[in-house]
Fold:
Amino acid sequence: METLETVSREGPERLHPALTNPNWIVLRRRREIFQKWLASVEGQDLKVLDVGGRIQPYRPLFEERIGRYVAVDLRPTPLVNIVARGEELPLASAQFDLVICTQVLEYIPEPAAVIAEIHRVLKPGGCLLLSAPAIFPRDSDHDLWRFLPDGLRWLLRSFRDVEVVAEGSSIAGFFRSVNICLLLFAKSAFLGTLLRFSVIPVSNIVAASLEFIIASSNDQFSANFSAVARKCAYS
Structure:
């Protein structure tokens, strides 16, 4: 079982990634997107469910507004409250104001079942914040899916006010893919470390600079997508 020290370190690293992180440009953009969406979620003392809440990186973005925070994950950590499958949440219906589910659906055999369960446990008018990969190498034997905007909208069709946003343009997607491939093909830990502290930061800076200069809206090669969806107030 992972220690509290390990998961407490991993969460902040995902929320505020170092420039040496190959996913830096995507993670930085996701933080900005979530900050904007969380600001539009009304209320204090929010009841929050984190599906896949092993490390809870986005909790600090609205910590002062949380009344109750429940983390569900198949992998037990000191931050997980309930060890359970997302397809079968052992929770009563209509009790959460907000559900967060980031980088989870790709590992679920039936993603639609997870979305149905999230919809069930949300209060009418409740909000879902979601992220899912579009482009990434297979990282385990349990890695099953990749998601595009129309696919996410189809999964979220039971919700209203669905918005899907690319976590960076095709420029960011290209450079992020280069970063990942460089580390994937590195033959030794030493070479991987060397790349992280030399090529990867330069690649990240170039990607961010080009995105700023070109301001491209092309997301055909975006590496990851975020989505926000609200449950109908009369459900």
